[in-house]
Every structure is written in structure tokens, then in C-alpha cells.
Amino acid sequence: MVRDGYFYGVGFLTVAVTCYLLTTSLWLTLVPVLLAAFFLWFFRDPERAIPDGPGLIVSPADGLVTETVRVETPAGPHTRISIFLNVFNVHVNRSPIAGSISGLEYRQGSFGNAISAESAEKNEQNIVTVSGPGITVTFKQIAGLLARRIVFSYHLGDKVTRGQRIGLIKFGSRVNVLIPVEAKLHVKVGDKVSGGSSVLAALDSGAQQ
After folding, report:
1. Count of Cβ atoms closer than 10 Å to residue 129 Cβ
2. Neighbour tally for 72: CB within 10 Å
3. Residue 102 annotated as catalytic
4. Which of 73, 152, 205, 209 shows a CA-CA span of 20 to 30 A to 36?
5. Active-site residue identified among 59, 82, 95, 173
6. pTM, whole model, 2 decimals?
7. Is-contact 197 48, C-beta < 8 A?
8. Does residue 208 contact residue 105 with C-beta atoms inside 8 Å?
9. What is the pLDDT of residues 164-192, one digit of tens each?
10. Could you count the other beta carbons within 10 Å of the beta carbon of residue 158?
């Protein structure tokens, strides 16, 4: 359970108790109880089995793969994988590879619908680059229509392991991942992925452990 779940859950349970003591109305009490249950469920943080093997790139988020496309970047061609998270997905983010945080940039923006490809450029976002032996992966935490806060728990130079918890996007959102173009894709549009446990792609070189 993410700490926020206890904050919201206990808060609404307190409101429910107060409401009942003041009104003795079960109907009025039911609303904050249901909200408490929702927040406790939404901020769940289940354990995940992290794949063990050379060159694997795992999903940084739960959700639906909405795009896999080759794009040109200042660092050369990459494959971009877009993952849409709806309000029912686990919103804890995980590191796609093992390495060090080599890039970190927060950009203010709007809060448009994250299902739209334009959200990757216009919405509030946090851009994280992780560099490991022979591989660099960049991913964007992108706020959505309901998401009003992006959480990232690490700093430049910090070391992370593959599948390690590193952040959170509250409510509906999107994550874009830039991977080396030579990596072999293990997912396609329409696939559902789980953060930390689903393999997005793999490098045949096996350089990244």
C-alpha cells in the first residue's frame, strides 16, 4: 500500500465516523466509507515477480499499450512505447532497467486526456533517463485528465535495479518509454502490461544485466 492510500483512506473513515455520530444516518455515512475503500484499493502496491535475464527492459507501469513506433531523437533513432493507465490500474511506477538515474527533467503543462498522443507533449510530465551497462532507457511520467500529481522518489546519480519502485502518478495517466531501436519488442498495441513484471523488449547483446 502506498502511503497516500492510508492518508486518504483514514481521512474518509474519520469523516464517516463523524458523520454517523452527528446524524446517525447510514446513507450519509456510506458515501465516505465507499470513498475510503476506493482510495485504499487505488493506492495498492502489489509485489511483482521481476524477470531475471540479460538485456530485458520491463514495463515501468501497468496499463494498455497504445503505441509502438520508431521515432527520431537527438540521440538517434529509438522505439517509443506508449502505455495508458486508467483509474483502475496500479499507478506505482518501476524502473525499466538496472542502472543510474542519468537524466531528470520536470515540465509543467496541462492536464488533458492522457489517451491522446498530444498529452506526451502538452501535459505535465517528468522525464527520467536510466543508464546501465550498454543501454539507456528514457521514460516519461505524464499526468492525465484526473492526475494532478506526479511523484518521483529519486535523484540524479541514484542507482536503481530493474523493476524497483521509483514513483507514482495519481489517477489516470500515461507513460512513454524510449528504448534502443535494436531492441526486440515483446509487446504490441492492445497488450496489457504490468509494471516491473512485463517485458517490453530485450537486447540480443545481453549487455544490460
Report:
1. 18
2. 9
3. no
4. 152
5. 173
6. 0.84
7. yes
8. no
9. 999 988 766 889 999 999 999 999 999 99
10. 12
